[in-house]
Specification:
transmembrane helix; AI-2E-like; disordered C terminus; mainly alpha; membrane; Transport protein
Length: 357
């Protein structure tokens, strides 16, 4: 009888793999088709996760629920539009300076070509491509900001409704699942994990952005505040965000101080990034995040394909949600385990062994 069960499970495994693969493909294509709708919904959800603890804190201090939400939304609007004004002003000034920077770049390329007469043309082409790419990033940000007007309004509206519901949400959830403690536990785990990640990532990005802006102000790098904002925003993009945000200020350091300036910018931001990721953002790839490096990188590619550039900013929290959903079913729990880092699996097995002992 046991052999029959084993054979049945073994034979059903290819069918399950085919079924899950087909479902993933269809879901991916479906999400990509409605990405313009999903982007404001996802960003509203994560904005809600960032600001909802503040609503609960105000309510604990005795502030009525709706008043708490109103105050938090005002803060949301103030932070967003204040940042947008600083961002737009810096980008306008940067666009006015581009002709001057182009002249400096031509001079530097001419100097470099004299030292590398054999491969001068190739080196010139490479440096010009790097410069073009770096400033194109800023241009894309401006275009994205101009095209995001209606989306931003929708994000404000959806976030407001989510915050208004958040006051009574714990009570509603408790009433609905009081006889189903397993579902309540999974909902609580999902909320805590994603909220903790979003809060920690936002706080560390803010500290890193401020540190970069101060460093550039001291070093005399143009548009220090703009690059600080860029580091804050790109800090949500794992691995690649740091390098994308480093290229433009490195070029300005090169224009102002020569190769030493570019190297100084790279060393300075590398030190800040190392402190942020290894000290202020502890164990995020281990027990806190529980995602392997490969999964994080693949999730960046996947969500960028599905949602475009916006997907890169929220790839990690979306993947955390997917992992927790997979953990909620016995059939997909193995897939969730495969998404974990090796160190996390070893630590979990060690803890289970101690508990069993």
């Amino acid at each position: 009888m046991g052999d029959v069960n084993i054979n049945t499970n073994t034979s059903s495994m290819p069918a399950k793999i085919l079924l899950y693969s087909t479902a993933v493909v269809l879901l991916t294509l479906g999400m990509k088709a409605i990405s313009s709708i999903l982007i404001p919904i996802f960003f509203s959800f994560f904005a809600f996760l960032i600001f909802s603890p503040l609503v609960r804190w105000l309510m604990k201090k005795g502030v009525p629920g709706k008043v708490s939400v109103f105050l938090v939304i005002l803060l949301f609007i103030f932070v967003f539009f204040g940042t947008a004004v600083l961002f737009a002003n810096s980008l306008i000034q940067l666009s006015n300076m581009i002709p001057s920077y182009d002249t400096q770049l031509q001079s530097i390329l001419g100097t470099v070509s004299t030292h590398f007469p054999v491969s001068g043309d190739t080196l010139t082409s490479v440096l010009r491509s790097i410069a073009t790419f770096a400033f194109r990033v800023s241009g894309n940000i401006v275009t994205g900001a101009l095209n995001a007007g209606s989306t931003v309004v929708l994000i404000f509206i959806v976030t407001t409704f989510l915050l208004l519901d958040s006051a009574g949400a714990p009570v509603k959830v408790q009433k609905e699942v009081e006889d189903q403690p397993v579902y309540l536990s999974r909902f609580t785990e999902l909320s805590k994990t994603v909220i903790n990640f979003m809060l920690l990532r936002t706080e560390t990005n803010l500290i890193g952005g401020i540190g970069v802006a101060i460093l550039f102000l001291i070093g005399g790098i143009d548009f220090a505040v703009l690059w600080g904002l860029l580091f804050f925003l790109f800090g949500y993009i794992p691995y690649l965000g740091f390098y994308l945000a480093t290229i433009p200020p490195m070029l300005l350091g090169l224009f102002k101080y020569g190769p030493v300036g570019a190297l100084g910018v790279l060393v300075g931001v590398t030190i800040i990034n190392a402190l942020i990721e290894n000290v202020l953002f502890p164990s995020i790839a281990g027990r806190g995040l529980k995602l392997s490096t490969t999964i994080v990188f693949l999730s960046l590619i996947y969500w960028s394909y599905v949602l475009g550039a916006a997907g890169a900013l929220i790839a990690v929290p979306l993947t955390i949600v997917v992992k927790i959903v997979l953990e909620s079913s016995e059939d997909t729990r193995l897939m969730a385990k495969l998404m974990e880092s090796r160190g996390t699996r070893d630590q979990v097995e060690e803890d289970e062994g101690k508990n069993g002992a």
